[in-house]
Request: fold
Amino acid sequence: MVASIRSHLWLIGWFRERITQYDPPYATEYIVKRSLPPSRHELGRMTFTEVDGGTHVRWTTRAEIPVPLLGAFLTRHLARPVITRTFRNILDVANTALTQRP
Reply:
């Protein structure tokens, strides 16, 4: 629901997010209001598209490590690979859980 707050604690940090758009079953958008380590977060979006045999999930985020002079470099070479791997792992675990036969 729009304006809902959710809080996550992952190996990569703690995040407090606010839902900014909710269009079930097609999309959810959010922004990170606070995080540790700190980040400047402009957009998080998950879109869901029906495909043959399931759902294609696209998870997009725009964020930056807010460190003067080094922020862009740290974001590109440290944060981006970690976030990409984390999101991919979450989606892989969800796919396995949803497609395993009991």
Summary: Residues 1 and 80 are 28 Å apart (CA to CA). Strands lie at 5-10, 13-23, 27-36, 40-51, 54-64.
